[in-house]
Structure prediction request, 138 residues.
Amino acid sequence: MSGDRPRVAVLGSTGSIGTQTLDLISHFENRFEIVGLGAGHWSPALAAQVKRWEPELVTVARQPADGEGAGVSLAVGEGALEGLVEQLAPDIVVLGTPGLVGMSACLLALRQGARVLVANKEPLVSAGDLVCETAKKY
Prediction:
């Protein structure tokens, strides 16, 4: 943990898990720092989250339309979630992405020693042994 507050990345920030996570953290924002947000695409919801939390890096799977995301440190495309985790080295990663979208980012975060909060069953059903072994090792 760097500084006084854990650095948090919320992957899948505009979905149900992500928005609920950010809502909960808003009640304790002096205890956490949101450093990264990841979403499938640029949207008004993501824009509002970026304005509210001012993360160091934002990722989207699809290229935003012209002008969207301007002035934001933005990574786009395949590998962007892993890049966010690698670059920011958050203390806590909330994995609220659908399916196996965030699997590589999950494993990388575990290897970096982060706490990973898995909010869907797919990573554990598909690769539970690997996820658990990686968590134990790091």
In short: Strands lie at 7-11, 33-39, 57-60, 74-76, 92-95, 115-118. The radius of gyration is 14 Å.
